[in-house]
Amino acid sequence: MSSNNKLTAKLMIQGTSSSVGKSVLAAAFCRIFYQEGYHVSPFKAQNMALNSFVTAAGGEMGRAQVVQAQAAGVEPEVRMNPILLKPSGPTGSQVVIMGKSQGNVTALRYHGEYQRMTWPYVTEALHGLLNEYEIVVIEGAGSPAEVNLKSNDIVNMRVAMEAASPVILVADIDRGGALASVVGTLELVEPEERAMIKGIIFNKFRGEIKLLQPALDFIEEKTGIPVVGVVPYFKIRIPDEDSVALSEADERPTVSLTEQLDVAVIRLPYISNFTDFDALQDEPDVSVRYVTDPANLGKPDLMIIPGSKNTLADLRFLHESGIGNNILTLCTKEIPIIGICGGYQMMGRLVKDPLHTESELEEVAGLGILPMVTEFYPQKHTVQSKGTILTDQGFFKACTGETVVGYEIHMGRSTLDEGNLPLFNLTSNGESNLDGLQAGNSYGSYLHGIFDNDSLRASLLNWLWERRGSKRPVEASLSQAALRESAFNELADLVRQNVDLERIRAIMGLRADS
User: Keyword annotations for this protein (predicted)?
Assistant: First the structure.
């Protein structure tokens, strides 16, 4: 460990399995320490996720660490997530190192030579943050007790040892078997690794804490490690790390949507950046559902085709599943549709990948909704963009000329048929480019985060209600920035009330007066 690191306090959140709530708890601790006046950074060595983000410097990183950085009140940067894996097929992923794509690698190859090669990037990023921040909140991945993966570990106990960080082990008590998973994890890690685990948190608890107390006493007696918190099950709008949350979503319209707009998002097999729709879900007059079965598409107020990590494969899915035909039928009935990034590409006449940049397919016919052709190139375009709304058509009429911000992550370039006008004039890294296309009630853009623009979102929802012949039942859209801050503070308050912060501070070596 670098000698400059010794003044930095560290806390690592590991789990007994995936989806125990590590990311959200790490965000909670980032916000708690930020509220206490510390300069805090999150860190996760390796993320596997389809939800990614582009930093101000143009690097790509996992959304979970972006959310944690926002909770910590700092600008996201790729050192916070030096390795990002984006699944692109059944056995392979695109590997992003320090924000830059390195191409696709099979799982077998990655969990060997490639993973060993990435470790120096992890250590450099980690120590850089440890040297610059007062507190680093580190997140693990999956479980530290996966014996088949431990020899090439770059995200769990190897990171804890490298950072000399105490570890809090988190178990999901809602799914059952939490006591056994804690004991089993502690039995399977090495003795020196077990010594790093200084506390246990049971997450997602429902019920009366007094009835759980005998189990907590048993765990402390059995393991010798204190239980430092029991966090209740909660629903606070913190963005999900990956598509696990979508598996529980009902894709059918509710029986009555008289007070809410019905927004149907096509759930593609390789859906990415579905956090684009969080801003719509936050609106009280909007119901967002994810559709895989054409029979469940119905007649929504708005259809959305989201981003994709494998555009050609997902486009083929639309054709073969029958959803594509349903979309086209609804378009002829003037049902509005919006495509974002890969979804935008699919709405064109043709998608070509002659160099097999993204898949084994060379070209697939598009849905033919928008007059354009897309071709893939090896160079990935990753930028934050800001610009002006050019069009005055459809829902844009109420916000023409206003500013729009977002970010772009794509390897395809779309060429509009002659005579078609774009939606936006964007500036990225000092260069201007035109983006987006509209035909009738169909719209497409490369801009992720487009619905986070409060004025644009309000214009869209007002327009959709007007199409129903009604006035929007709420007076104004909620500010996304204000909602996010409120959610972080609510999360911090909840965790403060249900963990022993004084004990955790002592574990981290933080003085009471620091």
Answer: Cobalamin biosynthesis, Glutamine amidotransferase
Q: Indicate the residue type of 157.
A: M
Give the residue numbers annotated as catalytic, written as ranges: 341, 448
Instruction: Check if the beta carbon of residue 447 is closer than 8 Å to that of residue 435.
Output: yes
Question: Would the CA dihedral through 249, 250, 253, 259 be positive or negative?
Answer: negative
Please write the tens of the pLDDT for every residue from 6-25.
579 999 999 999 889 999 99
Cβ distance 318 to 266 under 8 Å?
yes
* Cα separation, 410 vs 424, whole angstroms: 17
Q: How would you classify the pairing of strands 372-389 and 424-428?
A: antiparallel
Distance CA 361, CA 301 (A): 33
Looking at the DSSP bridge assignments, the partners of residue 168 are: 13, 199
Q: What CA–CA distance (Å, rounded) separates 196 from 167? A: 6
Rounded to two decimals, what is the model's pTM?
0.88
Pairing of strands 135-139, 9-15: parallel
Is the model's pLDDT at 255 over the cut of 50?
Answer: no
Greatest pairwise CA separation for the chain in angstroms:
75
**Chain segment 228-243, per-residue pLDDT in tens:** 999 999 888 776 555 4
